[in-house]
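Reading a protein record of the kind used here takes only a little practice. These numbers are not coordinates but entries in a learned vocabulary of local backbone shapes. Here is one such record, which you should read through line by line.
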Amino acid sequence: MTNSSISLRVTIQVGGLVFVIAGLPLLEQCLHEKNYALYGAMAGLLEAPSPNTPAAELPDRDTEAVICSDFLAHDVNEGFHHFVGRRLQKLNGVRVRNMAHAVQLLRPTLDGDAELPLPRSHVVLQFADTEQSVVYEASALRKATPTIQAQHKLPSWTSLDVAGSAAAPPAVGMQTSP
């Protein structure tokens, strides 16, 4: 599944895992490319809640399903390919509300000056519907990120600017839709 041509504007790259917002454009692209595994994983995320769902369990208005859509090979994420298609639920124990929130949580580690100390020793990604987690040593993740970007011609680990709006063209071999 490496280097798919999913046409999206908002992405983040954590190690070699690429995350996108699950939505109708991605769903349509999966059908077009016959990527039925990712399509199936996303279909359930896009279902409307049951009318009987208690108000406390309904998502907030700014909630987005952030899904792992691709895997870029690198030693730092050896064995993590099976997380493709899963929804990111927590970063370092904090529930991820949306893509901008994920970027905010990752920025101190991935944007940090190499001379500055890391905010924590490890970065832990937890996914919905599985007990398994991705655990990166923060220093290894920070060191590997520029290498992965260079190998895959990525301008940045995120396509969101500081304010949380889309700032860069699609990444990871992703093509723009006409």
Residues 1-8, 162-178 have pLDDT under 50 and may be disordered. The radius of gyration is 16 Å. The chain has one domain: 11-48+62-151.
